[in-house]
Amino acid sequence: MKRTPPRTDLRDPAVRPGGAAADAYAVAAAGLLVLAAALVGTHLQNRYGTLRVGWPPLVGGWMPHAGPGTPAALAVAVAVVAYGPSLTARLPWRPLLLAVWGGALAWTWSLALVDGWQRGVAGRLTTRHEYLQVIDRFQDVQETLRDFHAHILIGAPDNWPAHVAGHPPGATLTFVLLDRIGLGGGAWAGAFVVTAGTTAAVAVLVTVRRLAGEDLARRAAPFLVLAPAAVWTGTSADGWFAAVAAWALALLALAVTGRRPAWTGLGAGLLFGVTVYLSYGLTLVAVIAAAVLLLGARRLRPLPYVAAGFLVVPAVFTALGFDWWEAYRLLVTRYYQGAGGVRPYGYWVWANLACTVLVVGPATVAGLRRGGVLLGTARAALLRGPAPRLALLAGSALLALLIADLSGMSKAETERIWLPFALWLLPACSFLPGPRGWLAGQAALALLLNHLVLTGW
Question: How far is it, in rounded angstroms, from Cα 265 to Cα 254?
Fold first, then answer.
């Protein structure tokens, strides 16, 4: 059964066409931020070599190229721009979720294959800093976890590669488990990251529908498919981390809006526990979780179930001998022993935001501007109506990102590290009129980045 396309209330200041000029100013300001980060960063890197990135503000190198994924990427972009808004407005909900996942898979795979199979997929997670370098050191998982802390610092014997040391062992154990079930090697690891990471778009849609209504979720759907973030979702492990965090938040949204919160609450808690053992920085997902609780009609009822589920993962890792807090303390020392101790905070504290602009695209910048205006109204202060609720959800992700930025533990590489937060900014695009033009801009940015820069992930 076909669905009537949702009507947009043009009296809403968030979607009124009269805001187009302000949108253009916001996008222009974001573009200037990126340009400044590139010019200042190039000067600093050429003169002092302290940024430790090849193409400021991104990790990568200037390398115009095309590959087997180029025709597919162009075809996906054209199809989503031309048919995405109308299709997502009319499809029944469950087929829409499958279509969004399929579209995100096609977009992410095609962008990854612009760099070719080996360089773009199979070899990404096998470089010297990555997780697959240490799979053979996890023959005895319990013994390795008990001894994990002893190899974090750079001066330690057999110190872990940068990404292994920089994350709790849950990140590496993901790939150990794949290896144990017969899916070892870079090709399977890359395929897993893309396949799992793209489900985050579905989790975000489920959450937005529960907390802000189906119409806004449908309007956001094509933007979640055609996100510039896909350049880094395929194939960095952070795409996998983003998906786990997104499903934790989606289950929490189901728990605080449904009548039977036990199973969804337990599931949310369990995934939150997994999340903080994938990346230390993902403790900031708690900021978005707080917004989900605030927007839920039954915000307190599922909390005991969430807490019970959350405690499972720390209990297991602690019983196996891994101390999260001690490892994090050692990581801070390791961070400043390496590039983190050289990269200048005064540059990265604002250049990180330029990276974020490139990850989320111009449409998201304009959507966040509209969401900010909306939250400033008296009516929105009471969170009455779907649009203010969505604006609060996106705003909470922006707040989490800003806290990470100010912490000093996010200097460069944020185009992948901040994927779990950046994905939650994308639904702000649902505030924009004329979605096809904005979608074209999003696609153009992703295609240019992927074809002109050989990214580090």
Answer: 8
CA distance 421 to 218: 20
Digit-coded pLDDT (tens) for 98-125? 999 999 999 999 999 999 999 999 999 9
Length of the chain (residues): 457
Assign 232 to helix, strand or coil: helix
Which string of DSSP letters, residue by residue, matches 341-372? GTS-HHHHHHHHHHHHHHHHHHHHHHHHHHHH
Q: Beta 60-62 vs 453-455: how paired, if at all?
A: antiparallel
Sign of CA dihedral 282, 195, 161, 41: negative
Of 263 and 297, which is predicted with more confidence? Answer: 263
Provide the 8-state DSSP code for 453.
Answer: E
Across 50-79, average pLDDT: 97
Helices (H) and strands (E) in the chain, counts: 22, 2
Do 74 and 82 contact (CB within 8 A), yes or no? no
Q: What percent of the chain has pLDDT over 70?
A: 95
Output the pLDDT for position 377: 76
Mean residue pLDDT of the chain comes to 94
d(CA 430, CA 347): 32
- Spatial separation of the C-alpha atoms in residues 69 and 316, rounded to whole Å: 42
Helix ranges, 296-344 (H): 303-319, 324-337
Which amino acid appears at position 238 of this protein? D
Pair 265, 255: CB distance under 8 Å:
yes
pLDDT in tens, 413-426: 999 999 999 999 99
The answer to whether residue 383 scores a pLDDT higher than 80 is no
**Angle between helices 69-90 and 214-225 in degrees, nearest 10:** 170
Name, in order, each residue with C-beta under 8 angstroms of 444's C-beta and a sequence gap of 6 or more: none
